[in-house]
Amino acid sequence: MFLELKAQATSILKGAIQKAGLEIEDSELYFETSSYADLASRAAFRLAGLYKQNPKELATRIVSAVEIPDGSCIGNVSASGPYINFHASRLYLDRTVTTVLEEKEKFGCGVPKDKILLEHTSANPNGPLHVGHIRNSIIGDTLARILRRAGYSVEVQYYVNDMGRQIAVVSWACERFELDLSKKPDSAIADVYIKANAELDKNPEYVKEIDALMEKVEAGDVRTIDSFNNAVSLAISGIKETLLRLNVVHDKFVNESTFLKSGAVHDIVERIKATGRTKTDKGALVVDLSDYGFKKTLVIQRSNGTSLYTTRDLAYHEWKAGQADRIIDVFGADHKLISGQLRATLNAIGIKEPEVVIFEFVSLPEGSMSTRRGQFISADDLFDRVTEAALEQVETRRPETSCEFKKQVAEMVGIGAVRYDIVRVSPEKSTVFNWKEALDFEKQGAPYIQYSHARACSILEKAKEEAAWDPSAKIEPFLLVEDTEIDLIKKIALFDSIIDLAARELKPHVLAIYARELADAFNQFYRFVPVIAAEDEKVRAARLALVNCARIVLANSLDTLGIAAPESM
């Protein structure tokens, strides 16, 4: 709804500027939210510079030329110094309520748009996902959900490293040490991988065996390839279990080796050579990207002729470029340099570049993590710890409920707390995940938002039981005139613009913040305004309808964040 409000404000402002005898580009209307209006424009500042006139006088002149058409979402327009303020009409408020009730889970969805191929997580299959990995998964999955709601067709991919050095170590380890298959498969792989690295540190001569395995894979040795595939398949099966518990699903798992087997890696190396950018450095083939601002060269072939992860990644990106209109990669901060070099190289050979979302790392109060050294807390262990703590809270709050109910709610609250606490921070900021704070119902994290949704469900259920509400009855939204009612309606109306903003800027934390603010607005409304206890039947019906609107948009927000919306807590 807010996008419609903004579109109408844009049309009205452009018409008034033209009527006042002025001209300005649409991009220079400079709309922003304001505490003094529903929408404000700084266009007068820009016009003052263009026409060498006083911005305050220009704002007044433009407002005097404003014409608001009948049936507009804009109620009135006023000048406040150099600012031009737009205020929503009653029609806007009423239409927001009726539209949410009509569209339900579709409310906030954009019109169909382009196809996007989004890659995220892509952790090496040398052990289970740990806390350091899941920020990638959560940001990537939430972005995919936001983009889909915004109208894009999104395919989510996981790029599987099935032939690099780390996988050679895993394969070597599986031959050398016994796998404990009573464990989750990715944990069993981690055990032997850690043992193998300790062995390699003690006996560096074994490194030659690792190099030999990598050469055999590139040469197409069937036995070695099968050994790599078996180890990778085991690890990936465990990783998929973890992702599913986190409510993260990939549409496709794409193996690195695919592009070596197809000849795509060889082809792309030859195309890069044809640019004249390559040279030999200590036997390795490197790419000069100095004209793109990179002092460091990019290695695309080792001295023994084998390819690198980067080389195969270039071939993967060429393939992706033909699969979608846009490509988005979610990478950790340690990929900042290499992702920049990858984009530059693709640009140099005329291939569509990916949009890259770089995130800083998440850690636990215990410190940083390394699978190689065996110093990590797996995502599975974290989820168990968080849901166990959530279960204690549910048992305290709802002791009368069944064990099954308690466990179900604890899982929803625990996983929701993890997802929300990680995604609420802007990707470019590092964060420490403190699971105790994330589970605090008073801290306005996921449990707070989930509880607000459950409260709305409870209110509506109680109203049904007391025969105080007929969901199918016609309502009169214009009866919602209290400040907290209007504030809640306006917050609900913002949902489509929040989705639009998060999709355009690839910033999932924007939605997380909105969901918390929506829960705040709903709780403020319920605190100050009687709902079921309202004496006037029509007012009661309108307020229950507003509770239902809040429930719908809270559920839509949580779903887009990948968080369950429990009906009871």
From TrEMBL:
GO molecular-function terms, A-Z: arginine-tRNA ligase activity; ATP binding
First-level EC class: ligase
Positions of the Arginyl tRNA synthetase N-terminal domain: 7-88
GO biological process: arginyl-tRNA aminoacylation
Annotated EC: 6.1.1.19
Nucleus recorded as keyword: no
Main location: cytoplasm
Keywords attached to this entry: Aminoacyl-tRNA synthetase, ATP-binding, Cytoplasm, Ligase, Nucleotide-binding, Protein biosynthesis
Domain DALR anticodon binding: 449-569
Motif ('HIGH' region): 123-133
Coiled coil feature spans: none
Reaction(s) catalysed by this chain's protein: tRNA(Arg) + L-arginine + ATP = L-arginyl-tRNA(Arg) + AMP + diphosphate
Any single Pfam family the record assigns to this protein: Arg_tRNA_synt_N
GO cellular component, one term: cytoplasm
Entry-linked NCBIfam families: argS
Family: Belongs to the class-I aminoacyl-tRNA synthetase family.
Name the record gives this protein: Arginine--tRNA ligase
GN (gene name): argS
